[in-house]
User: Fold these one by one.
Assistant:
Number 1:
Amino acid sequence: MQRTTSTTTRTLRRTAKPWVAAAVAATLSLPVLAPCASAAGPGPAPGTTACAYGYTSEATVWFGADADSGVPNHETRTGCTVMDEIMADAPFATHGRFVRTVASVTKDLVREQVLTARERRDIVRAADVSEVGRPHPVTGRRSVDLSAIGLVGYTVRATMPTDAEGTLAALAGCGFRNIEPSGGAGNFYGYTAAELAPLTDEAGLEVPSLGVSLSNLQNDVDLVVAEAHAIGAKYVRISGSGSWTLADYSRTAAILNEAGERLSAEGIRVAYHNHGYEFETAEDGVTGYDVLVRETNPAFVTMELDVYWAASTDTSATDLFARYPGRFELLHLKDIGEDGSFADVGAGTIDFAEIFAAAPLAGVRYGFTEHDQPSPDGVTSACTSLGYLAELRY
């Protein structure tokens, strides 16, 4: 069953989570998604739990792709989950503190018969091999793997419809090896994925990810699969809406889980790309972004963190990595000026060395540079950003 519950503190985990005052917890009534609800926009059902908007019980106890315990994320006696209990104290200052927390929480849950002794051993073992709490310092001795860097096609949206061949060739000429076309299934700058594929192939560009719409995932999953296969994409990503409530984010998480499971069978992962509103829509300290990360199943869904939009709300990418380890397989690498404007990567205020140093904790596989308002043109801006990353040492 899909849950809409969130974390508790270590000391209060039998009553309410830290960001929900006792009086609010007693009176708050939040919509809860019904199991197996339709992706077309199910109506919420009333209900509350001790951990509103927390980690889904449909997943496993998971601390990163290489640190999956395989143990179901059981509900506890309060309606929270094992992950709610463990991650209540996140982020963790040290790896040792994290492992000790896991050992302590799971010992209690064995005593309460939520976990078996074998399950506890598997969870503690996964915690021990995880990146959680480990130091990820900037040493200045490592270079960015440019084979895992691409461009978000939105940056060159002005020229792609009229000169796709020239645009793609110019991007490849300055060193790009990947591109993430933006649009919707069946229409990327006027091309289907099957029509665009020969052009990216000719330019020598891989297409690891496609930007599609939420409607595509709800209504056109077969078309999404066909488009991804036609161009070789292993990820499809969607974005949300600034008008959503937390209940809407919860419903979207369920849609992502359902579509993600379907696409997983085809070798495709679903990703969610943020703007700023996910961090600004909040109830009692829980943001829309929290809901999306906690309620999606990491076996099927990952996050594509746009570091510009996070920074625009004073949200640090590395803080998110520490709070939600392993959940960020894709990044949008965009810089922000001191006045909040868009900037080429390296020309603004974001510390990209810190972000790349923490990439193992985040689980990053690809980063895509982007500029929403490129100057003097998309190709020039893109190549400037790539040039900075080529010189970056972290």
Note: The chain has 16 helices and 14 strands.
Number 2:
Amino acid sequence: MTLTEKLIDKEKQVSAHNYSPLPVVMSRANGVWMYDVEGKKYLDMLSAYSAVSHGHCHPRMVKVLHEQSQKLCLSSRAFYTEVLGPFLEKLCSVSKMDQALPMNSGAEAVETAIKGARRWGYQIKRIPENLAEIIVCERNFHGRTSGIISFSSEPSYKKGFGPFMPGFKTIPYSDAKALKEAITPNTCAFLVEPVQGEGGLYVPSLGWLKEVEKICRENRVLLIVDEIQSGLGRTGKWFASNYEDIQPDGMTIGKALGGGVFPISALVGKKELMDVFTPGSHGSTWGGNALAAAVGLEALTILEEEHLIERSAKLGIHLLNRLKGLKSPLIKEVRGIGLWAGVEIDPQKARARTICEMLVKRGVLSKETHETVIRFAPPLVIEQSEIEWGIEQLVWVLENYKPENS
């Protein structure tokens, strides 16, 4: 038994099987490259679902993590710290928001947004108690908590986890008319991803978000955008919602906020929304800890100073053009924006999972979603030549794929 096989077997024995990892065991990483325990090198085209947008072990991120860890890591929010204020000030500045509520995971940020939207509905909009509704979209993915999966449209996320939280309405994505018709006097918010990542890399029609903003304003409904995957340069802008120059009432941010070295998330929002939170109404032992604040501030600073957002816009055009130019009967459609692309595979001709496994053997890391879409989201520090190499491996896989029942 090889070292890889031994480690996989050990993990399978002691880990809950809530993931189905690709059969490779990672040992170290740097920039856009990862290395397994056998020493083989891989091009990371997944970035831990956009959490490693800065590249693996970015030297500035590691330096700040190390330096802050020797000073103060955690004191809880029972005290002020010298680093949280500057971090949240920077976060509010880039998001054009008034205040921030720091948490740890993306799902926590979304749960915070749900609580804030409901309380705003009762205290500010004067919706009768316990009747507030939040509108969401089909194919949404906002996290895995019991509250969030209550409004998922994916059966596999919900099976065996009921009963579910009420108070949500689901409409088709990129459909302004459906939103308008779904709103009632009890609607407090519309929660939406500007680009649906986990759902299969769906980019809405041009002008839809602007129309959504208008509808929400006319009906006194909060517009809350989930930028956890799409934010912080992934799409070639600070946030995907910037493409339509909209100003939401609230925004959830996470993943790349931790610079690939620490879990950090936040709900940022306008004062009217954020003012509903009062002492004791919400919190987290680790949320806003000093280590996270130092890391988050450096992550935002690096995005600016190293022009990673501009790189994403430029290299994203190249990536999408190359993928859309591929001539393979296995490809049904290519979708994406910035350094974020989804290659939809025709399920009648191939399995996306098998293609991902073949890519691993060629030294490229990616992952399927919904069994039919292969996602490509490399670190924003990737070079064009590295993208080209990755595309070459994909071409080889597509040309050499053999149906499993043949």
Note: The chain has a mean pLDDT of 97.
Number 3:
Amino acid sequence: MTDTDTRTDGRGDTRSRLLDAAEALFAERGSESVSLREIGRAAGARNVIAAQYWFTDRDGLLKALIDRHRPEIEAARHALLDEYEAALAAGTAGDADARIAALAGALVRPSAVKLDQGASGAGYLRTVADLLTRPEPQTEPLGYDVEGGSILRWRALLEPLLDPDAVVLHRRFHVIRFVDVELAQRARAPGRRDHRLFVSQLVDSAAGLLSARTSEETRRLRAERNER
């Protein structure tokens, strides 16, 4: 690694430039179709293996990109969950439908802010969707299971409001994935500037999915599966 690759200049240090380049390329093409060498070239790194130097491998780069955005989203979601719990304590949270709607908003709105952050936000949203739509979804880089994280807190607050069968059948994860994929798709749409209607409808859709009752067919099939 050369001195040029490790210094801090007007564009930021090499690590930051690599992440900037990754976000821009992922926003255009998704995280699965961009090589580490392409990212290095786009960042202007002289060493062709600059990305490997800084992040070891693709998973390391993806985690670093996620970590770059996660504190902002975590803080925003925790703030909304604080408001929800305060309303519960004050007796002003409303009925079950109103509570589910509030929790749907706490899931959607912190991530939806990324729609207004250009290529950086779009690259993040597409990376999250790519991780969740792999044949084996990858949640570890997203921090969804981290103790004290906002998603674990959200899951715990939501569980008492859900159909018990929906809990067992991973309804919460399905809704998380639905929301993240929809946000990533929106980020790909050119020329969209006002996201308010989209975000409001996404909150409504997430709330509807969360509150849906489990059908008798689904209950029967689950029982049959458990008997095998």
Note: Residues 1-12 have pLDDT under 50 and may be disordered.
Number 4:
Amino acid sequence: MDEELRMLTERLRRESGGTAAYERLTGPVGQDELAAVLTAPGQPLWARELAAFRLGVAGDRRAFEALVLLLNHRDPPRCASAAHALARLGDPRTARAAAALATNELRVAYALHPVRLLVELRAPESVPALITTLRRRLKPHDPYRRVALACVDGLGTLGDDRARPVLNEALAHPPLAEAAVRALTLIPHQR
């Protein structure tokens, strides 16, 4: 079993109380039945999350909206499982949605997983969104250091020369300086 699925099912088993509905959704169930859970009224959050995750990793785009909502959830494990499923979904809207979430200043406290997803996707939206998010985190006393660090690391991983100016700015911030040096070494020099 995939490690992400194992962690998800353990967490949701506890959340659901191990009900018959939980056992049914973790068993051999068809994609149409999983999709119905996403739209049926009165479904608990754990059931919607499990259905969306299973559909997402199966490449069923009916899970897209539910997964994007979960990517922006206040609970980090939900965000992580949604990011995992979205990375495997193959929906062309995913990078745009992740970029919108990563750059939304009203939701910056929940931007860590969208940032990491953008790095994994390596989409055209990834570098501009990470640059924008990091630049906003370079204010004095910004409380979202983990988001800033994820942006620095991600920009290094992506290795795009457009990131040089913001990474050079990050050098002046002690909590980010070491990571910025590493990231800058990963960007090939232009000749």
Note: Residues 1-91 form a domain with the Leucine-rich Repeat Variant fold (CATH 1.25.10).
